[in-house]
Design goal:
Structural class: mainly alpha
Radius of gyration: 28 Å
Number of domains: 1
Helix content: 55-70%
Strand order of the largest sheet: 1-2
Length: 143
């Protein structure tokens, strides 16, 4: 049955959405695989071996960070000072945004990992409940 407009101007739910209790499955093994793969990628970034990582950008080349132009690199004249100030600000903003991205990425991994753990705990509780019910049934007095 197609959804009917209630006249209130609200968007109608898509007829392609599954009904409650039907068509939605969560594969906890897939959740485990996903968070482990994402964590591996993030660990590689945090090991500072990835080309183009924040660590590489901020690593020192002598007394200067590799990704930052110095005033000496650009020269001592007004236009160069403006370029230096702009690049220094951009460098700092990029570093901050990249760090926030890594923090958010880790939070997403933690959430997926927690969801997978919740499914594991629920499954273990269901198995235990089934065993308890079976034990109770087997130990029930017969009439």
């Amino acid at each position: 049955m197609a959804p009917k407009d209630n006249g209130g101007g609200d968007a109608l739910p898509s007829p392609d959405l599954p009904q409650v209790g039907k068509g939605i499955q969560t594969h906890r093994d897939k959740l485990h695989d996903v968070w482990k793969a994402l964590q591996g990628d993030l660990d590689d970034l945090n090991k500072h071996v990835t080309k183009g990582s924040l660590f590489e950008l901020q690593s020192m080349d002598g007394s200067t960070a590799k990704g930052l132009l110095t005033q000496q690199d650009l020269g001592e004249y007004p236009a160069a000072t403006g370029v230096y100030n702009t690049t220094k600000t951009a460098y700092n903003v990029i570093g901050g945004v990249y760090s926030q991205f890594l923090d958010s990425y880790q939070a997403m991994i933690d959430t997926i990992k927690r969801a997978a753990g919740n499914y594991d705990n629920t499954e273990a509780a269901n198995v235990q409940s089934a065993r308890n019910a079976q034990t109770t049934t087997n130990n029930a007095p017969t009439a």
